Structure formats: C-alpha cells, structure tokens
Amino acid sequence: FSANDHPKVFTAPSGVPTSGGHDHTSIHYWGNHSGGGCVVRLQLPETRVCISEVRAMVRAQDQGWGGTGSAGAVVVLLDAGGKELAYSLQSLDSHGEHTLEWVMTPEAHGGRWPAKEGEEAYSTVCGEGEGLALELRAFTPNWGGWSVTAVEGELSATIIG
C-alpha cells in the first residue's frame, strides 16, 4: 500500500485521541494515514455475538528508507453496515520485515505505538452486536514515497453467542 493510493485507514469519530499536539486534519495524526486496504477480513455470524478475544499476526515492512515508526498494521471492528467502531494497532519500529502479533480483550487493547503514544487504540475491538466484522489492515503515512507491504496476515476471534 502506497501513500495516498488508498482511502484513510480509519475514519475517526469525535473523541479519538491525538498526540503531539496534532489535530485530526494533520498528516501526522494516524487516522489520516492511507493504506486502509484490507489484508484479512473476518466476517462474524449475522446473529448477535460477543467478542471475548481477538488475535492478530502480520508479517510486514515499511518503505525501507528514512524514518520509522509511522507505518504498521491495525485491527478494525466494523458494524453490519461497515461503519468503523474501534481499532487496535501495532507499529513497525525499524526497517526490514517484521512479525507483529497481538492479543486484544475487552480489558486490554493490545495496541503498541511508541511514536504516537495515545493513538494505539480506540475503544475495544471486542464488541457485541449482529453482523460484525473484523479487518486487519496495513497503513502508511501520507508522506510522498512512503509505503507499507503486508506479506502475510492472520486474524482470529473467540465469540460467545
């Protein structure tokens, strides 16, 4: 996924935290990053379910030059209509291919983003509802020449209902 070639990775509702004094219109704010293309989609049953745990794994790398820490992978919870409800992400903090793995529960978002502390998660991807879906997406900043490559991804959820 290349910068500016894809839609925003997450459409932030009001109340999503920012860090470093950047507002929601800034390219530094992660929700304005591009590369929101789906690597893995997990469609949950149409009946009402409660997600008790989500596990994600992705092998990915950033553009391989310049700075690091602004690209990565994110798990997004969507409602039956496709509206983005919550996210948890992991950043790529050095060049080269890396495996990112994390576990999300209602009590712990599992996100990690040292460069943008406070933006690593919003709400919980362990939601409850009908027709929910989870997506694993790769993202990159909208800076010219930046990109992220997702080589492999896995997504699983433990549900009740």
Task: Throw out a few tags for this protein.
161 residues, mainly beta, four-stranded antiparallel sheet, 9 strands
General description of the model:
The chain has strands at 38-43, 48-62, 71-78, 84-92, 98-104, 121-122, 128-130, 133-139, 148-160. It has 161 residues and is mainly β. 41% of the residues are buried. The chain is globular, with a radius of gyration of 15 Å. Helices cover 0% and strands 43% of the residues.
**Low-confidence sequence ranges:** none
Count of helical regions: 0
Please state how the strands of the largest beta sheet are arranged side by side: 1-8-3-4-6
The tally of strands reads: 9
Q: Report the radius of gyration as a whole number of Å.
A: 15 Å
Task: Estimate the mean pLDDT confidence.
Answer: 84
What structural category do the secondary elements indicate? mainly beta
Q: Could you say which overall geometry the principal axes of the C-alpha atoms support? A: globular
Q: Describe the sheet with the most strands.
A: 5 strands, antiparallel
- Portion of residues in beta strands equals 35-45%
Order of helices and strands: EEEEEEEEE
Give the termini distance in whole angstroms. Answer: 35 Å
Q: Considering DSSP H and I runs of 4 or more, what fraction of the residues is helical?
A: under 10%
